[in-house]
Structure prediction request, 194 residues.
Amino acid sequence: MTNIAEPCDIYAGVDTHADTHHAAVIDQNGKHLADAQFPTTPAGYVALTAFILMYGILVRVGIEGTSSYGAGLTRHLTSFGHHVIEVIRPNRQLRRMSGKSDPIDAYAAAKTALTETKQPTPKSGDGTVEQIRYLFAARRSAIKARTAAQVQLKSLLVTAPSLLRERFRNVTDAALVADLADFDIRPYPSIKAS
Prediction:
């Protein structure tokens, strides 16, 4: 009679990047079981999850960058009820000493999932807090663009013909933008190339 092995508890780690994620699986004793690379697409997330679950009962997944490159995978795994923890990347000096590669980083994340039960819980990536974060990011971007446009306008006026320079010399920033938006350049003589 053939004995069917009981599924064992497993832990996974994922090293995340923009286009690919590298996943590694270890058992409850820390033994390396397998690792593989997957694309950062919905189909890739499904394949990565299936790859991990082939090795046993998933206890925890440690993911580097749950709120950046790993956000999509984190949402995918948590939507299926898997326990995901944020893996804090080790400092660069420690990484150089132990080597740096996607499999090494994925196994290190899996080991963290196995040994560290008090790692941060990843952000959900939705809800009111995420909406506010998006609004703040858009606002910061708009302010930077406005400032860059004002600096550019003032720089162009420095070398503009005298009539234009004098017209806008003592104008406030807000008035300068408003006046230039309505400005009709046709009355000013064009400068002919020599």
